[in-house]
From TrEMBL:
<dbReference type="Pfam" id="PF00106">
    <property type="entry name" value="adh_short"/>
</dbReference>
<protein>
    <submittedName>
        <fullName>SDR family NAD(P)-dependent oxidoreductase</fullName>
    </submittedName>
</protein>
<dbReference type="InterPro" id="IPR002347">
    <property type="entry name" value="SDR_fam"/>
</dbReference>
<dbReference type="InterPro" id="IPR020904">
    <property type="entry name" value="Sc_DH/Rdtase_CS"/>
</dbReference>
<dbReference type="InterPro" id="IPR050259">
    <property type="entry name" value="SDR"/>
</dbReference>
<dbReference type="GO" id="GO:0032787">
    <property type="term" value="P:monocarboxylic acid metabolic process"/>
</dbReference>
<dbReference type="InterPro" id="IPR036291">
    <property type="entry name" value="NAD(P)-bd_dom_sf"/>
</dbReference>
<comment type="similarity">
    <text>Belongs to the short-chain dehydrogenases/reductases (SDR) family.</text>
</comment>
Length: 270
């Protein structure tokens, strides 16, 4: 299927590893010029190098998206390097703090306001900063695609992840509102909800790509929560997500907006 994405320009937050990296690589394969945003320059540079080695065009847009000024500077630099932003993928997110490696996250009453701020600043304010920076240009050109990557915790709620669930739910509510405000401008806004994803950015444990149900007891237990994982005997991988991002970024999805699509193996069925 030709998605007709050649020479479009995408800005992908958290693009330096994991799901974000795969989104950047697959968009580039479709001919998209990709601004790879990450807090860490070495990560962004590495993904840019991968894309350029494969013949694509990319730019390392290093910025802390919790800074409104930083976001606007990164978007301006990306526009100068690659052109106007057609596609925004809000992928950056902060992991939930665990009491100890592999242990449970604390109950809400045991959390601190400092911890809340860290989660909300990145997952919610960071996403809003990016939207505010690209929407004027999309509106002027009457074309744009915004895709938020959230967690199924935001659609269903999850004990011990109250603030995280709330921030992710806010991403969905925000996306629906912006989809309504800017439908008249031909701007599509959608959300992809994820469960656990195994990727190279995780050092060890059940989510490391090398883990199997035979070698990791916790992974074996996790697979039982995902209907399709029981058959596939694996968790989601970045490439399970990136294909949907490419589709939603294309005009093949011109009539899809304000929707949440679960790529979580049936963990949540809505």
């Amino acid at each position: 299927m030709d998605l007709n994405l050649k020479d479009k320009v995408a800005f992908v937050t958290g693009g330096g590893q994991g799901v974000g990296r795969r989104i950047c690589l697959d968009l580039a394969t479709e001919g998209v010029r990709v601004a790879v945003n990450d807090l860490f320059a070495e990560r962004a540079d590495a993904v840019v190098a991968e894309i350029e080695a494969a013949g694509g065009r990319a730019f390392a847009a290093v910025a802390d998206i919790t800074s409104e000024a930083g976001v606007h500077a990164a978007i301006a630099a990306s526009r100068e390097a690659l052109g106007d932003i057609d596609i925004l993928v809000n992928n950056a997110g902060v992991p939930v703090e665990r009491r100890e490696k592999g242990g449970a996250a604390p109950l809400f009453l045991d959390t601190t306001t400092e911890g809340w701020a860290r989660i909300i600043d990145l997952n919610l304010f960071g996403m809003m900063h990016c939207c505010k920076a690209v929407l004027p240009g999309m509106k002027a050109r009457r074309h744009g695609k915004i895709i938020n990557i959230m967690s199924e915790a935001g659609r269903a709620g999850e004990a011990r992840l109250a603030v995280y669930s709330g921030a992710k739910a806010a991403m969905l509510g925000f996306a629906k509102a912006i989809a309504q405000e800017h439908g008249r401008d031909c701007i599509n806004v959608n959300v992809i909800a994820l469960g656990a994803v195994s990727h190279e950015g995780i050092a060890e444990g059940a989510l490391h790509p090398s883990a199997t149900p035979e070698t990791n007891e916790r992974l074996g237990k996790m697979l039982k929560a995902y209907p399709i994982a029981r058959g596939l005997q694996r968790l989601a991988r970045p490439e399970d997500v990136s294909g949907m991002v490419c589709l939603l970024a294309s005009d093949r999805a011109a009539y899809i907006t304000g929707q949440s699509i679960g790529i979580s193996g049936g963990l949540v069925m809505i």
